[in-house]
Amino acid sequence: MSDTHVSVRAEDEPEQLREQFRQLLRYRWLIGVGVCVGLLAGAWLGITGANSYAATTDIVLRAPTSDPFAPTLSSDKAINMGSERQTALSRAVAEGAAKRLGMEADEVDRLQDGLQVTNPPQTLVLHFTYNASDPKEAARRADALTRSYIDLRKEQWESVRGAMLKSLQDQLNPVAKQNDELSQRIKQLPDGSAADSAYAVQANLLNRITDLRGKITSLKALDMTPGNVIRNATVPTSSDGPGLPLSLGLGGLVGIGLGLLGAWVRLVFDPAPRSAGDVARAVRGPVLGALPRDSAGALVVGRADSRAAEEYRSIAFRLAYDERFADRRRLLVVAPRGSMESSVAVAVNLAASFAETGKNALLVEADLRTPSLSERLDVSATSRPRWSRTAEHAEGEWPGHGQLVVDAGESGTFGLVPGERVRNVPRALTSARTTRLIAEADDPDATVVVVAPPVLAYADALALVDRVDGVLIVCDPRTVHRADLVRIRELIAGAGGTVLGAVTHTESRRGGARSAARSDNRRRGTGSPAARPAPPNTRAEHERHRDDDGSTTITLRTVGSGDR
User: Which InterPro entries match (predicted)?
Assistant: First the structure.
């Protein structure tokens, strides 16, 4: 069993990598910016490097010694290569080289800028590199800096030796004077114990004098050469830069890396769901379907044999086999926030799909603020359902007496309870008439689909959750945040409902393509334009137009207060 689990995980890893790569490609503009920056940097490096020439010299350092061939000499312990490298880069060396080159004092900083000093590992070698735009000038300055460093170190060593010699000489002079005075007294002393004592003191003085003179002699015998030049600077014959083609190639590779890094950072901090799995985790339910781009037509099922129609049928079948929905056959379709275009389209087409399977489908438009379905769909005769026969209908109460019949083409027909503008929306949604309306699904052959305004815009959907406990969330992953989906799921669960799943869709960002598609639908009779909420102080009137093929199209015209 464990082996099977491991093999399944191993098979999923390539798919996860492919999904992550596809998510990174959502931010192509970041990758493109990174590539452009890399190419520009590579071009700048290639152009500037073409006029740069590098001259090099090498110095082997050594410590002062009286016997350079002594096998016990350990120069690597006497010399700190890090300190020597800093000394070579110091201003004192640059000032000495400037004097050799005949440069002004204000050019010392510019002279330092072109110098690089490195120390190859496990060696006593200092590698001097000088970059300049003129190859001859690069070689001349490299030599000058090398000689200046050698002179400075030799001067420093000799200064230290001079100080030590002075200190030893200052110690020797009083001892030698004391020895001379003692020698004069010994000549005047008679033989005896006093003379023997004086001779003993003189012997100690002589030993001290001998020791000091030996140290002085050793210091004077030291070879104070700080190092030897093992490679002199030569005039470079080619530029030091990598060349324009190589620079562009490296810049492009680095730019791709920067772009991918930027896309990954943007992906990590993107609040929108990155995939269907993110949506499923946020709502704690499956993604029942993903609608094709620009498929938010009012009615697709039964009107055209398209990919969108098949996707709606697939969603309806998945819901039919879900035990949580099959027990009660009540479905509430909502969107997170913004427009109701997508949720209305899903609700209408699911009702048509249920009707296609032989169910008595009833679509309830629970939008009592900007109702529009009766104008957008092909409706016909009005029937009187059970909920309207057993109760009196007060004026302004919803739902009213009428139930419309929607022609879904080859899929058949389904009922529509249109929304109506009411003064008190919460009271209408929680009324006994609304409860009896939704109870139509108690019939084994009936299915009720309710579409309500966005959850995060109004509380209308939450007022219906206790009676329509199965909720379907319709969202565009590009425009909704994961936090919004989590909040919707918590609100629905708190109201006693259950999220059956989600349906994702992707609308085109170009309004022109959408308008053209709707115009084409009107010409073919496969849909009608979405009605938008009328602005304040306006009203909507119907206009009938007869097309060239003899069919009639109903449209809406917004009439302002000035047109009345």
Answer: Bact_polysacc_biosynth/exp, P-loop_NTPase
